[in-house]
Amino acid sequence: RPTEFLQSFSVGTIRVTPVPVEHSIETQGFLFEADGKKAAVLTDCRANVPEATQTAIRGVDVLFTDGWMEDVQQLKAVYRSFRPDLSEAQLDDVVREKKRNHLLIPEANDLAERVAAKKTVLLHVAHAASGHEALVKRWGSERLTVGFDDQVFSI
Hints:
Blueprint: E1 9-11, E2 14-22, E3 26-34, E4 37-42, H1 51-57, E5 62-66, H2 72-82, H3 88-99, H4 105-114, E6 119-123, H5 132-139, E7 144-146
Parallel strand pairs: 4-5, 5-6, 6-7
Antiparallel strand pairs: 1-2, 2-3, 3-4
């Protein structure tokens, strides 16, 4: 059934709240609440997460969000390998447009701090980003985890 932003509904004992985010189009993330715990899933989203979403997810126990790449230079290198014909100005335009649709790791970290997430798990990590171990070494902390396939979480 269609959902409306910030209008909660229940699935069994789990309260689900769709929250607005932007990708290349307006889309939605979700806040899940059960047994006094909260988890938010915001993937495929731009860094300009709406204030209403930030307010709704403030203080979540776990935030699952993009950690697509580490920086714009990494992104440029990937697109340069696919499109060697582009001028620097054209490449900058492509990167600016593509970057807008996913959070870079520093942006995800900033979002986690703004919403006071107790723990953040980076998802949607590009294969062109550094390897998992290198990402964990550079970005991992008590509050930030670099996710991996088949990982299981308890909240």
